[in-house]
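During the reporting period the student researcher (J.K.) took over the structure-prediction task from the postdoctoral fellow and processed the backlog of single-chain submissions. One of the processed entries is reproduced below for the supervisory committee.
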Amino acid sequence: MLKEKIELLSKQYFETYRGVRHHLHAHPELSYKEFTTSAYIQNHLQSLGIPFQIMAETGVVGIIEGKPSQRVVALRADIDALPIQEENDVPYASTVKGVMHACGHDVHTSILLGAAKILNETKELWEGKVKLIFQPGEEKNPGGASIMIKEGVLENPAPTAIVGLHVHPILETGKLSFRSGKVMASADEIYITVKGKGGHAATPHLTVDTVLAASQLVVALQQVVSRDKNPLSPSVLSICSINGGFTTNVIPSEVKLMGTFRAMDEEWRKKAHERMKEVADGIAKSTGAEIEFTIDIGYPTVFNDPHVTEKAKNIATEIFGADKIEEGELRMGAEDFGYYSQKIAGCFFRLGTGNIEKGISAGVHTPTFNIDEDAIAIGMRMMATLGASL
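J.K. obtained the following structure tokens:
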């Protein structure tokens, strides 16, 4: 009866929460600045009669109580947008220049608000409590999840499991994917400054060639991944920015580099940090340059608890059919959901949002990203069912 009721309400409220998505999409806000978005969520929960509290300044945490039980499940959505100029020609396109919901957080938030309404209307049919986590700052270090945890989001009441979903444009709408164990990589930001005595390019012997030192460093760092790492453990090191110099005949006194390091193994992650700095020190000694090597520690790996993930997958199979459920792939992208899954059993799954026939195929973090909005009803149904049944 419960699952049938949730299915009915998901269809009934679909248009309402598609409208919510349009509103959020048109009014995006960057990480840790989601004040209007937070107020919108608060007002919506208040209209539903769901009590909530504020965390991490713009985060919102609501509680829905079913029949008396010790069971507590957390459902999480992220609320921030990206610094991208939208190129979609749609009525609900971003009204904020240079800011866009290009990663689907507007979808995640709309789905969780819809699931909250459904759970609130069916609370006489399920037991325990559901904690609704609307989290800021997923797109930017240190990650809103880490702040929410420090402020007690996993306490009073303490959930035994947490669930999150993410839009997946390469997965057809109507399908979902699950993967147990390691799912997504850790992500660290690399900032390097190479310094030395600049001078005329015609007299390099009177200078410290910072460009040459930086070039050697870019190449040498790749050996950390190709030679020091177990080849069976995925890892990526990419230097994505080099800035130095201003003309053809002057060796600059400073070159700056930026990049990212990703890994699936936390022990290797720590070792790689040490090796990268050792490589930089070696090049500094051999070239005479001074190299400042900073690693901004980012999100940990996302680990899906096998028991919780299998249970969630079975629920999805039951309500949508086995042909709609796929095995998720290992991804080197990062998600601060990993902070939650370090603390309690978690399940982070993918919601298919692509539709080639409708021309919806652009990837996340692109200016033309969009979704097949039929996925909203599917997401609402899945999250509400997991909240009531997991």
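The committee noted the following: The chain has two domains: 2-185+301-389, 186-296.
J.K. will present the remaining backlog at the next meeting.
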